[in-house]
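Appendix B. Extra example for self-study. Work through it before the problem class; the solution is given directly after the inputs so you can check yourself.
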Amino acid sequence: MDLSLTAEQEAFRENVRRWLKANIPADWTSRVAATADVPRPEAYDILRAWQRKLYDAGFLGLTWPKDYGGRGLTFIEEMILHQEMALAKAPPILNILGVGMAGPTIVAYGTEEQKRRYPARILSCEEIWCQGYSEPNAGSDLASLQTRAVKDGEHWVINGQKVWTSLAHIADFMMLLARTDPNAPKHKGITYFLLDMKLPGVTVKPLRQMTGDAEFNEVFFDNVRLHESQVLGGVNNGWSVGLTTLMYERLALGFGLQVRLRIALDGLIELSRRMEKHGRNVVKDPVLRQKIAQLWIDTECLKYTGARAITRLLRGEIPGPEASTGKMMWVETHQRLQELAMDIQGPYAQLMRGSEWAVESGLWQHTFLRSRANSIEGGTTEIQKNIIAERILGLPKD
Amino acid sequence: MDFGFSQEQEMLRATARKFFENECTSTFVRARMEEPAGVTDDFWTKLAEQGWLGLVYPEEYGGAGLGFVDLVVLMEEMGRVVMPGPFFATTVLGGLAILEAGSAAQKEEWLTRIAAGEAKATLAWTEPNVRWDAAGVTTTARAAGGDFVLSGTKLFVPDAHLADVLVVAARTSEGPRPEDGVSLFLVPKNTAGLETKLLPTMDQTRKLCEVSFRDARVPGPALLGARDAGWPAVARVLERATVALCAEMCGGAQRVLEMTTEYAKIRVAFGKPIGSYQGVKHRAADMLVDVENAKSLTYYAAWAVDENVVEAALAASMAKAYVTDAYRKVAGAGIQLHGGIGFTWEHDLHLYFKRAKSSEFTFGDATYHRERVASLINL
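Solution. Structure tokens for the complete assembly:
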């Protein structure tokens, strides 16, 4: 057991740190108006520019092969990058679904042509990706999806609807799961497509959320003709390909999630130092100190659990149970953090952006409301628990 | 970076698991619960033969010269079987205090005998005021001629009734800070004025004592380390012992999780194994999350104290705060998911539940350590 880094890795850290210090836009927090989670709509231009800058500096796609726009490094460098981004309070990566899911899946399953065409533009943020999995009648029970793809010559004709599609309104491409064989068992008749969002017949309708923002969308497909070269990983093999995407989501997004949590926690601690409750400074309140300390412990814990998972990966072992707990742990911790941010503010918690009395311009109110989706998106907590119970603990399916 | 165990450590784990499955069965543990000793000579000799009593002591003192992470592996396996007896008091508490503060002669005298299984030790430090900081030390040691005379009461001293020597923290002077003026003494059993009384404990696998000193006189060379400067050694031993205890708790929690999932697969209710119901599945998943997180924090803390990194104290407190809550929750959930059978004396679950409870209050509970975390992160 050795948590120290090699001289090269330390040099990489130093390099990242120096670069971030010189390049993070000073006022990005107020301009992007969020301390955690997915950005608000008006922030996209700033975030697009930020991702491009990161890419040009060579800090994106660290673990991807060099031939496809990556750097060919290990998860250690990836971890270092994310740790430094947290410490420097760096802006989030806009094309996160592309970087975290679409890119690695294309690298794993794509044809040479697909691998040359897509991954690099994902990293540079030239092409933003969204994820077309969930449907009105297929959420947790994803394999029941009904969007149909019917072969017609060299094309597939797509009809159906996706929902809760983050970033679809600015996305250039979608990772689309559609049913290609309605007669096969439900997991066997699904194909994974790379869909150009500008194709005729694709309609994106914003869905207003409880935050008031419209960051999710409904996406409708009306006889969309998609060329057969856009199949990823083989016809009727979409379920396996899609699961790979989800595995990458857990691993790669895991680093990012830990970073966002740490940034939010640092923000919460700064807030606590400024706020008074019941006539005393929040950080002097023994009960609130307990709650903040527990958040600190849980946030650190996510980091170490991640390091255990990386170690297994680097040793060429299969991921252990620790690899599956991260999402649940993150969700629970983040929601508790956001609740505490409201608790600390007391009656001020009620005031939204627009009031001069609002704490920190009402940023926490937005992130608090947004955090309610955490335990639903990317696999509900209930589904995560079923997966852990069945696949790791070996309990019987009902 | 490599955040995992080495092949040698995995071998130690495999050896220890097999050894304890054979030698430390439920029947053995239950027999020891009923007796004051909590250990048999035969079992103690076997631990010595394995080289585990001196695992982390230097080879020059009869030890195996291994590191703290190796001890963590062994402690996890001991926790799996709720191992009774004075291993923790002797090897970790008393022994590490001697290793930390002792002169070469004192180490030679005691560590070699501890490692060989010929002597048992403990650390008498906490008092009825149940403070974990230096201010809790109110027992006094008065200089008299070349001797020291000890007066006061120590409470919650593990296995003092078995110890050949007690490492005692006592106040030799009043300094500006509570940390100043604490000294350590090696007090052999049979010292006049020393009395140990075994206390009835909820966790019968852990024997705790009251130790009183009524003008107990020890010679000058009984002083362990420098006079008035004993506290830093206690603090370092405490940090290590806390992490070792966390490892033992992780082992116990892991075993409860395994017992519970095994049972949930075979116990049938309403025509199906109870493990197929989501009410059971979700609780089992929660247990797994608790166990894995507990391990992550414990392993990190083990590395941190072994390497003596700056965050070692923070790492130890983070681990103890989390693992304390995790073991208590997991042991409780284990009983709940077993239903009535889990509440019986016959089933082993209560041994784990009680061990979780006794461990909770050893070296500070979760609330205490969260407050320490808050202080250490400058909140």
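Self-check: Chain B has a mean pLDDT of 97. If your reasoning did not lead you there, revisit section 3.
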